[in-house]
């Protein structure tokens, strides 16, 4: 157990639908990062939150949004889902900018 | 922005051999270089990291070297074991300035044959 908890582990949904992925960071970590991992794209950075505020944005589609709550857990919302959104979605947390990440075990999203 | 190239994409070795994975980066502002190991069905796990004020770092069978002048860094695994089989990712990030989000390499699939 890495200390970063992601739910659900698996999600199967239809095109056009909306899903919410949840992440609880490691205790004490204020930063939460979301990554998308697909076979041909590697680890793609989506968005970062620090203590409730958006800190950095990567290649995140407009159909996707995220937030971090006062208890520091974060949610990634994916809407108007397309087949190409099928991927592993990882959440990671870190203590500071020059520390490595602790990744969760991921959510495997399958859009059918 | 930063660009990280990682080679090889696949590495097959016999148990007991050494394995070397190499990465190059483009942004001279990068000064933190972590390596992650991702086993099947799991998230990436930080295994070792190095900062720009250090040229080499070792942790048991794993070592990382950094050449800031040439902008490349490498992961060395000695006496490989079947449990070392996984995908390894390098990354590079600045730790000052506006964005310090690391850029990841595309990954190296290491296969250790018993």
Overview of this structure, please?
The complex is a heterodimer of chains A (112) and B (114). Chain A is mainly beta. Chain A contains no helices and eleven strands. Chain A has strands spanning 5-7, 10-13, 19-24, 31-38, 42-50, 53-57, 64-68, 74-78, 87-94, 102-103, 107-111. In chain A, strands 2, 4, 5, 6, 9, 10 and 11 form a seven-stranded mixed β-sheet that branches. A four-stranded antiparallel β-sheet of chain A has the order 1-3-8-7, with no helix packed on it. Chain A is globular. The termini of chain A are far apart. The model of chain A has no long low-confidence stretch (mean pLDDT 93). Chain B is an all-beta fold and 114 residues long. In chain B, 0% of the residues lie in helices and 54% in strands. In chain B, the strands form two sheets. In chain B, strands 2, 4, 5, 9, 10 and 11 form a six-stranded mixed β-sheet that branches. In chain B, strands 1-3-8-7-6 form a five-stranded antiparallel β-sheet, with no helix packed on it. Chain B is globular and about 45 Å long. The model of chain B has no long low-confidence stretch (mean pLDDT 93). At the A-B interface, strand 5 and strand 10 of A face strand 4 and strand 5 of B.
């Amino acid at each position: 157990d890495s200390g970063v908890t992601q739910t659900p582990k698996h999600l199967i949904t239809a095109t056009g639908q909306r899903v919410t992925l949840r992440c609880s960071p490691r205790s004490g970590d204020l930063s939460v990062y979301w990554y998308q991992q697909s076979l041909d794209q590697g680890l793609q950075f989506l968005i970062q939150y620090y203590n409730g505020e958006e800190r950095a944005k990567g290649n995140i589609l407009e159909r996707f949004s995220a937030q971090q709550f006062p208890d520091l857990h974060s949610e990634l919302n994916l809407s108007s889902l397309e087949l190409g959104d099928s991927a592993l979605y990882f959440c990671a947390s870190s203590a500071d900018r020059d520390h490595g990440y602790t990744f969760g075990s991921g959510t495997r999203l399958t859009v059918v | 922005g930063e660009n990280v190239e990682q080679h090889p994409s696949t590495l097959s070795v016999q148990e007991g051999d050494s394995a070397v994975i190499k990465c190059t980066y483009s942004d001279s502002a990068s000064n933190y270089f972590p390596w992650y190991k991702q086993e099947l069905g799991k998230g990436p796990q930080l295994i070792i990291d190095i900062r720009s004020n250090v040229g080499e770092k070792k942790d048991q069978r794993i070592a990382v070297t950094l050449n800031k002048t040439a902008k490349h860094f490498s992961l060395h695994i000695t006496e490989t074991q079947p449990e070392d089989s996984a995908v390894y990712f390098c990354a590079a990030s600045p730790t000052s300035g506006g964005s310090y989000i690391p850029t990841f390499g595309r990954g190296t699939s290491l296969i250790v044959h018993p």
